[in-house]
Write a structure and sequence with these properties.
This protein is α+β, with helices and mostly antiparallel strands and 105 residues long. Helices cover 30% and strands 26% of the residues. The chain has 3 helices and 5 strands. Strand 1 and strand 2 (71-79) form a beta hairpin. The longest helix has 14 residues, at 46-59.
């Protein structure tokens, strides 16, 4: 497989992390929040998750793609570096969509 196109320019918005990926009150995101919190990520240090997702996008392989109304979605699977060092193999961690020229979570 290949790497994520423009993976070095990936965008992970703060609001996506603080109001979705680490938000236990988010209807759509609470399962993901439980996952990330269990591996040591915290809302107070949301930047650590942003950095881990960017590294994941840069170093892991694209395993599938699909076209949607919002652009091409890339699934990136592989080990995710976590604060507790357990570093799970993660596919759901890498749902990237190509917005213009930059991948965005």
């Amino acid at each position: 497989m290949a790497k994520l196109p423009n993976g070095d320019r990936v965008i992970v918005p703060e609001s996506k992390i603080t109001h979705y990926l680490l938000d236990l009150t988010s209807k759509e995101g609470k399962a993901k929040a439980r996952f990330f919190l269990a591996f040591g990520f915290t809302l107070d240090t949301w930047e650590v998750l942003a950095a881990a997702l960017k590294q994941h996008a840069l170093t892991q392989e694209v395993t599938s793609t699909r076209k949607t109304a919002y652009g091409i979605h890339y699934n990136v699977e592989g080990e995710l570096q976590t604060p507790d060092q357990r570093n799970p193999r993660c596919g759901a961690c890498g749902k990237w969509k190509r917005a213009k020229r930059f991948p965005r979570w």
